[in-house]
Amino acid sequence: MPTHKKRNVWLSAGFFFLLVFLAGCGAAPVLPFLPTDTATPLPSATFTPAPTDTPTVTETPSPTATALRTPPALAGIFQTELLNPLDPPHPYIQDTCQYLHDKWSSANSAPGTVLMPIMFHSIGGETGGDRISEPDFYTLMQALHDDGFQAVTTAQAASFLESNARIPPLSVMLIVDDRRARYYYDTLFRPYWDEYGWPLVNAWISLDDSITAENLPDHILLEAEGWVDHQAHGFQHFPILSDATDEYLLQELQRPIDFFQENFHKKPIAFIWPGGNFTPRAAAMARQLGYELGFTINPRGPLMFNWVPLSDAKDPGRPSWIPEGPVNDPLMVLPRYWDTDAINHLAEVIQIGQAAAAFAGQNKAAEMEYYDIVCAAALGPIP
Predict the structure, then answer these.
(1) Which of 342, 339, 303, 344 is nearest to 324 (CA)?
(2) Is residue 232 scored above 60 in pLDDT?
(3) Is residue 205 part of a domain?
Protein backbone atom coordinates (compact mmCIF):
# COMPACT_ATOMS: atom_id res chain seq x y z
CA MET A 1 0.00 0.00 0.00
CA PRO A 2 1.37 3.35 -0.86
CA THR A 3 2.69 5.40 2.06
CA HIS A 4 0.24 8.31 1.86
CA LYS A 5 -2.70 5.94 1.89
CA LYS A 6 -1.35 4.26 5.00
CA ARG A 7 -1.01 7.71 6.70
CA ASN A 8 -4.70 8.54 5.94
CA VAL A 9 -5.88 5.17 7.33
CA TRP A 10 -4.03 5.77 10.61
CA LEU A 11 -5.43 9.35 10.86
CA SER A 12 -8.97 8.13 10.33
CA ALA A 13 -8.60 5.37 12.89
CA GLY A 14 -7.06 7.84 15.40
CA PHE A 15 -9.91 10.27 15.00
CA PHE A 16 -12.44 7.45 15.52
CA PHE A 17 -10.84 6.25 18.78
CA LEU A 18 -10.70 9.94 20.06
CA LEU A 19 -14.41 10.28 19.63
CA VAL A 20 -15.05 7.00 21.45
CA PHE A 21 -12.79 8.10 24.31
CA LEU A 22 -14.54 11.47 24.72
CA ALA A 23 -17.94 9.86 24.64
CA GLY A 24 -16.89 7.53 27.36
CA CYS A 25 -15.85 10.45 29.49
CA GLY A 26 -19.33 12.06 29.16
CA ALA A 27 -18.07 15.21 27.45
CA ALA A 28 -20.12 16.92 24.77
CA PRO A 29 -18.75 16.25 21.32
CA VAL A 30 -16.89 19.17 19.76
CA LEU A 31 -17.88 19.64 16.19
CA PRO A 32 -15.67 21.31 13.69
CA PHE A 33 -16.66 24.97 12.74
CA LEU A 34 -18.54 24.97 9.53
CA PRO A 35 -18.90 28.39 7.87
CA THR A 36 -22.34 29.42 6.66
CA ASP A 37 -23.48 31.96 4.13
CA THR A 38 -25.37 34.13 6.74
CA ALA A 39 -24.19 35.31 10.16
CA THR A 40 -26.37 36.48 13.04
CA PRO A 41 -25.37 40.12 13.71
CA LEU A 42 -24.32 41.12 17.23
CA PRO A 43 -26.56 43.62 19.03
CA SER A 44 -25.46 47.30 18.56
CA ALA A 45 -23.72 48.93 21.53
CA THR A 46 -25.27 52.10 23.06
CA PHE A 47 -22.59 54.86 23.62
CA THR A 48 -23.01 57.08 26.68
CA PRO A 49 -20.42 59.89 26.81
CA ALA A 50 -18.47 60.15 30.03
CA PRO A 51 -19.27 63.14 32.23
CA THR A 52 -16.91 66.11 31.93
CA ASP A 53 -15.83 68.90 34.34
CA THR A 54 -17.49 71.65 32.26
CA PRO A 55 -20.47 73.06 34.20
CA THR A 56 -23.81 73.41 32.58
CA VAL A 57 -24.42 77.06 31.59
CA THR A 58 -27.71 78.45 32.82
CA GLU A 59 -28.90 81.67 31.25
CA THR A 60 -29.46 84.50 33.78
CA PRO A 61 -32.09 87.11 32.96
CA SER A 62 -30.57 90.56 32.22
CA PRO A 63 -31.23 93.18 34.95
CA THR A 64 -33.71 95.89 34.17
CA ALA A 65 -31.85 99.12 33.24
CA THR A 66 -32.23 102.02 35.72
CA ALA A 67 -34.13 104.90 34.18
CA LEU A 68 -31.98 108.00 33.66
CA ARG A 69 -33.11 111.12 35.56
CA THR A 70 -33.42 114.29 33.56
CA PRO A 71 -32.24 117.42 35.37
CA PRO A 72 -34.97 120.06 35.64
CA ALA A 73 -34.57 123.42 33.98
CA LEU A 74 -33.31 126.13 36.31
CA ALA A 75 -34.91 129.54 36.65
CA GLY A 76 -32.95 132.56 35.51
CA ILE A 77 -31.39 135.18 37.77
CA PHE A 78 -33.68 137.04 40.16
CA GLN A 79 -35.02 140.28 38.67
CA THR A 80 -36.68 143.23 40.36
CA GLU A 81 -38.47 146.35 39.17
CA LEU A 82 -36.96 148.24 42.11
CA LEU A 83 -33.72 148.63 40.13
CA ASN A 84 -33.21 150.98 37.21
CA PRO A 85 -33.84 148.91 34.04
CA LEU A 86 -30.41 150.00 32.80
CA ASP A 87 -28.74 148.46 35.88
CA PRO A 88 -29.57 144.75 35.58
CA PRO A 89 -28.10 142.24 38.05
CA HIS A 90 -24.98 140.43 36.87
CA PRO A 91 -24.01 136.95 38.10
CA TYR A 92 -20.32 136.13 38.34
CA ILE A 93 -20.03 132.47 39.41
CA GLN A 94 -19.60 130.21 36.37
CA ASP A 95 -19.85 126.83 38.12
CA THR A 96 -23.57 126.10 38.59
CA CYS A 97 -22.93 123.19 40.95
CA GLN A 98 -20.66 125.21 43.23
CA TYR A 99 -23.13 128.09 43.19
CA LEU A 100 -26.03 125.86 44.28
CA HIS A 101 -23.88 124.17 46.92
CA ASP A 102 -22.91 127.51 48.48
CA LYS A 103 -26.36 129.00 48.05
CA TRP A 104 -28.21 126.28 49.95
CA SER A 105 -25.64 125.22 52.54
CA SER A 106 -27.18 125.67 55.97
CA ALA A 107 -23.86 127.05 57.22
CA ASN A 108 -24.01 129.99 54.80
CA SER A 109 -26.14 133.10 54.38
CA ALA A 110 -29.78 132.51 53.60
CA PRO A 111 -31.06 133.56 50.15
CA GLY A 112 -32.14 137.19 50.21
CA THR A 113 -29.23 138.33 52.39
CA VAL A 114 -28.29 141.84 51.21
CA LEU A 115 -25.15 143.94 51.55
CA MET A 116 -25.38 147.74 51.25
CA PRO A 117 -22.05 149.59 50.88
CA ILE A 118 -22.32 153.27 51.86
CA MET A 119 -19.67 155.90 51.04
CA PHE A 120 -18.95 158.67 53.55
CA HIS A 121 -16.84 161.47 52.12
CA SER A 122 -17.28 164.56 54.28
CA ILE A 123 -19.35 164.90 57.44
CA GLY A 124 -20.22 168.36 58.74
CA GLY A 125 -21.66 171.60 57.47
CA GLU A 126 -24.70 171.51 55.22
CA THR A 127 -25.77 168.41 53.33
CA GLY A 128 -25.06 168.70 49.62
CA GLY A 129 -22.80 167.29 46.94
CA ASP A 130 -20.38 164.89 48.63
CA ARG A 131 -21.04 166.27 52.13
CA ILE A 132 -23.57 165.18 54.75
CA SER A 133 -24.43 167.25 57.78
CA GLU A 134 -23.93 165.78 61.23
CA PRO A 135 -27.69 165.71 61.98
CA ASP A 136 -28.36 163.86 58.72
CA PHE A 137 -25.48 161.52 59.49
CA TYR A 138 -26.93 160.61 62.89
CA THR A 139 -30.39 160.19 61.35
CA LEU A 140 -28.99 157.77 58.78
CA MET A 141 -27.11 155.72 61.38
CA GLN A 142 -30.19 155.52 63.61
CA ALA A 143 -32.32 154.44 60.67
CA LEU A 144 -29.83 151.68 59.80
CA HIS A 145 -30.03 150.38 63.35
CA ASP A 146 -33.82 150.65 63.58
CA ASP A 147 -34.27 148.74 60.32
CA GLY A 148 -32.05 145.91 61.52
CA PHE A 149 -28.83 146.53 59.59
CA GLN A 150 -25.47 145.46 61.00
CA ALA A 151 -22.03 146.56 59.79
CA VAL A 152 -19.40 144.13 58.43
CA THR A 153 -15.71 144.28 57.53
CA THR A 154 -14.21 144.00 54.07
CA ALA A 155 -13.12 140.41 54.71
CA GLN A 156 -16.67 139.46 55.71
CA ALA A 157 -18.04 141.12 52.58
CA ALA A 158 -15.52 139.32 50.36
CA SER A 159 -16.31 135.92 51.87
CA PHE A 160 -20.02 136.54 51.43
CA LEU A 161 -19.75 137.64 47.82
CA GLU A 162 -17.30 134.90 46.86
CA SER A 163 -18.79 131.88 48.66
CA ASN A 164 -21.94 133.06 50.46
CA ALA A 165 -20.30 132.95 53.90
CA ARG A 166 -22.69 133.88 56.67
CA ILE A 167 -23.23 137.58 57.37
CA PRO A 168 -26.25 139.34 58.94
CA PRO A 169 -29.34 139.22 56.68
CA LEU A 170 -29.26 143.02 56.42
CA SER A 171 -25.60 144.05 56.23
CA VAL A 172 -23.96 147.38 55.59
CA MET A 173 -20.38 148.48 54.85
CA LEU A 174 -19.56 151.90 56.28
CA ILE A 175 -16.71 153.19 54.05
CA VAL A 176 -15.00 156.50 54.88
CA ASP A 177 -12.98 157.80 51.93
CA ASP A 178 -9.60 159.53 52.35
CA ARG A 179 -7.45 160.21 55.40
CA ARG A 180 -8.88 161.87 58.48
CA ALA A 181 -7.57 162.77 61.90
CA ARG A 182 -8.31 160.32 64.68
CA TYR A 183 -10.94 162.54 66.36
CA TYR A 184 -13.09 162.20 63.21
CA TYR A 185 -13.36 158.45 63.80
CA ASP A 186 -13.56 158.59 67.58
CA THR A 187 -16.24 161.28 67.59
CA LEU A 188 -18.48 160.14 64.75
CA PHE A 189 -18.07 156.35 64.46
CA ARG A 190 -16.59 155.02 67.69
CA PRO A 191 -19.93 155.16 69.57
CA TYR A 192 -21.47 152.71 67.05
CA TRP A 193 -18.57 150.32 67.54
CA ASP A 194 -18.89 150.51 71.31
CA GLU A 195 -22.68 150.08 71.35
CA TYR A 196 -23.45 147.89 68.31
CA GLY A 197 -20.07 146.41 67.36
CA TRP A 198 -20.09 148.14 63.99
CA PRO A 199 -16.64 148.20 62.32
CA LEU A 200 -15.61 150.99 59.98
CA VAL A 201 -13.77 150.71 56.64
CA ASN A 202 -11.30 153.47 55.76
CA ALA A 203 -10.24 154.04 52.15
CA TRP A 204 -6.63 155.03 52.84
CA ILE A 205 -4.46 157.08 50.45
CA SER A 206 -0.90 155.71 50.65
CA LEU A 207 1.13 158.66 49.35
CA ASP A 208 3.89 159.64 51.78
CA ASP A 209 3.36 163.28 52.65
CA SER A 210 2.89 165.52 55.67
CA ILE A 211 -0.76 164.51 56.16
CA THR A 212 0.15 160.84 56.13
CA ALA A 213 3.04 161.41 58.49
CA GLU A 214 0.80 163.28 60.90
CA ASN A 215 -2.10 160.82 60.90
CA LEU A 216 -0.33 157.52 60.35
CA PRO A 217 0.59 156.69 63.98
CA ASP A 218 -3.04 157.13 65.07
CA HIS A 219 -4.28 154.97 62.19
CA ILE A 220 -1.81 152.23 63.02
CA LEU A 221 -3.38 152.23 66.50
CA LEU A 222 -6.92 152.25 65.05
CA GLU A 223 -6.09 149.25 62.88
CA ALA A 224 -4.57 147.46 65.88
CA GLU A 225 -7.67 148.17 67.97
CA GLY A 226 -9.63 146.12 65.44
CA TRP A 227 -12.53 148.39 64.60
CA VAL A 228 -11.09 150.45 61.72
CA ASP A 229 -10.45 148.27 58.66
CA HIS A 230 -8.08 150.11 56.30
CA GLN A 231 -8.28 149.35 52.56
CA ALA A 232 -6.48 150.80 49.52
CA HIS A 233 -7.57 154.08 47.93
CA GLY A 234 -4.67 154.52 45.55
CA PHE A 235 -1.21 155.99 45.95
CA GLN A 236 -1.46 159.50 44.52
CA HIS A 237 -5.27 159.29 44.54
CA PHE A 238 -5.60 160.49 40.96
CA PRO A 239 -8.47 159.14 38.83
CA ILE A 240 -7.68 156.07 36.74
CA LEU A 241 -8.12 157.10 33.12
CA SER A 242 -8.24 155.00 29.96
CA ASP A 243 -4.89 156.35 28.74
CA ALA A 244 -3.03 155.49 31.97
CA THR A 245 0.23 153.65 31.39
CA ASP A 246 1.01 150.30 32.92
CA GLU A 247 3.69 151.98 35.02
CA TYR A 248 1.16 154.39 36.49
CA LEU A 249 -1.38 151.66 37.15
CA LEU A 250 1.24 149.55 38.87
CA GLN A 251 2.18 152.50 41.06
CA GLU A 252 -1.42 153.17 42.09
CA LEU A 253 -2.16 149.50 42.78
CA GLN A 254 1.12 148.05 44.05
CA ARG A 255 2.43 150.92 46.19
CA PRO A 256 -0.57 150.70 48.58
CA ILE A 257 0.13 146.99 49.03
CA ASP A 258 3.72 147.75 50.01
CA PHE A 259 2.61 150.57 52.33
CA PHE A 260 -0.03 148.42 54.06
CA GLN A 261 2.33 145.52 54.64
CA GLU A 262 4.90 147.84 56.18
CA ASN A 263 2.57 149.90 58.38
CA PHE A 264 -0.69 148.01 58.92
CA HIS A 265 0.92 144.55 58.73
CA LYS A 266 -1.64 143.21 56.31
CA LYS A 267 -2.35 143.13 52.60
CA PRO A 268 -5.37 145.15 51.42
CA ILE A 269 -8.02 143.05 49.69
CA ALA A 270 -10.20 145.90 48.39
CA PHE A 271 -9.36 148.78 46.08
CA ILE A 272 -11.68 151.79 46.36
CA TRP A 273 -11.27 153.44 42.96
CA PRO A 274 -10.16 157.12 43.37
CA GLY A 275 -12.95 159.35 42.13
CA GLY A 276 -14.79 156.19 41.11
CA ASN A 277 -12.73 155.94 37.92
CA PHE A 278 -11.67 152.53 36.63
CA THR A 279 -10.87 150.80 33.36
CA PRO A 280 -11.01 147.14 32.32
CA ARG A 281 -7.21 147.07 32.14
CA ALA A 282 -6.85 148.55 35.63
CA ALA A 283 -9.41 146.12 37.07
CA ALA A 284 -7.59 143.17 35.50
CA MET A 285 -4.27 144.35 36.94
CA ALA A 286 -5.85 144.81 40.37
CA ARG A 287 -7.13 141.25 40.25
CA GLN A 288 -3.70 139.96 39.26
CA LEU A 289 -2.13 141.75 42.22
CA GLY A 290 -4.48 139.98 44.62
CA TYR A 291 -7.29 142.47 45.22
CA GLU A 292 -10.57 140.63 45.73
CA LEU A 293 -13.01 143.54 45.60
CA GLY A 294 -13.21 146.95 43.97
CA PHE A 295 -15.68 149.74 44.73
CA THR A 296 -17.01 152.50 42.48
CA ILE A 297 -19.14 155.51 43.43
CA ASN A 298 -22.12 154.40 41.30
CA PRO A 299 -25.17 153.73 43.57
CA ARG A 300 -26.84 151.16 41.35
CA GLY A 301 -28.26 148.92 44.09
CA PRO A 302 -27.46 146.49 46.90
CA LEU A 303 -25.34 143.37 46.60
CA MET A 304 -26.34 139.74 47.02
CA PHE A 305 -24.50 136.47 46.52
CA ASN A 306 -23.80 136.07 42.78
CA TRP A 307 -25.91 139.17 42.15
CA VAL A 308 -24.43 142.62 41.41
CA PRO A 309 -26.42 145.38 39.62
CA LEU A 310 -24.26 146.95 36.90
CA SER A 311 -24.67 148.83 33.65
CA ASP A 312 -23.37 147.63 30.31
CA ALA A 313 -23.58 150.91 28.40
CA LYS A 314 -23.49 154.65 28.92
CA ASP A 315 -26.68 156.18 30.25
CA PRO A 316 -27.41 159.71 28.93
CA GLY A 317 -29.41 160.40 32.08
CA ARG A 318 -26.35 159.64 34.27
CA PRO A 319 -23.42 160.65 32.09
CA SER A 320 -20.80 160.62 34.87
CA TRP A 321 -21.46 156.96 35.80
CA ILE A 322 -18.93 154.71 34.09
CA PRO A 323 -20.46 151.45 32.76
CA GLU A 324 -19.08 148.49 34.69
CA GLY A 325 -20.18 145.66 32.40
CA PRO A 326 -17.20 145.88 30.00
CA VAL A 327 -14.85 145.06 32.90
CA ASN A 328 -16.36 141.55 32.91
CA ASP A 329 -15.52 141.13 36.61
CA PRO A 330 -18.44 142.37 38.77
CA LEU A 331 -16.59 142.01 42.07
CA MET A 332 -13.98 144.55 40.97
CA VAL A 333 -16.57 147.27 40.20
CA LEU A 334 -19.08 147.10 43.05
CA PRO A 335 -21.62 149.92 43.50
CA ARG A 336 -21.80 152.14 46.59
CA TYR A 337 -24.59 154.32 47.92
CA TRP A 338 -23.81 157.93 48.76
CA ASP A 339 -24.31 158.89 52.40
CA THR A 340 -26.47 161.85 51.36
CA ASP A 341 -28.98 159.59 49.59
CA ALA A 342 -28.66 156.19 51.30
CA ILE A 343 -31.52 156.78 53.75
CA ASN A 344 -33.94 157.08 50.82
CA HIS A 345 -33.10 153.52 49.70
CA LEU A 346 -33.25 151.54 52.96
CA ALA A 347 -36.81 150.32 52.42
CA GLU A 348 -35.98 149.48 48.79
CA VAL A 349 -32.95 147.40 49.83
CA ILE A 350 -35.04 145.49 52.39
CA GLN A 351 -37.77 144.80 49.82
CA ILE A 352 -35.22 143.51 47.29
CA GLY A 353 -33.89 141.07 49.86
CA GLN A 354 -37.36 139.86 50.77
CA ALA A 355 -38.36 139.39 47.13
CA ALA A 356 -35.11 137.53 46.39
CA ALA A 357 -35.76 135.20 49.34
CA ALA A 358 -39.28 134.44 48.09
CA PHE A 359 -37.99 133.81 44.55
CA ALA A 360 -35.38 131.41 45.89
CA GLY A 361 -37.99 129.55 47.91
CA GLN A 362 -40.16 129.04 44.82
CA ASN A 363 -37.24 127.49 42.94
CA LYS A 364 -35.58 125.55 45.75
CA ALA A 365 -37.10 122.15 44.91
CA ALA A 366 -35.95 122.32 41.28
CA GLU A 367 -32.49 123.53 42.25
CA MET A 368 -32.08 120.79 44.85
CA GLU A 369 -33.18 118.13 42.34
CA TYR A 370 -30.76 119.50 39.74
CA TYR A 371 -27.96 119.41 42.29
CA ASP A 372 -28.78 115.83 43.29
CA ILE A 373 -28.73 114.64 39.66
CA VAL A 374 -25.84 116.66 38.26
CA CYS A 375 -23.64 117.78 41.15
CA ALA A 376 -23.88 115.50 44.19
CA ALA A 377 -21.57 112.82 42.82
CA ALA A 378 -18.71 115.34 42.56
CA LEU A 379 -19.39 117.74 45.44
CA GLY A 380 -21.27 115.52 47.85
CA PRO A 381 -24.55 116.36 49.56
CA ILE A 382 -25.30 119.95 50.48
CA PRO A 383 -24.61 120.45 54.21
Answers:
(1) 303
(2) yes
(3) yes
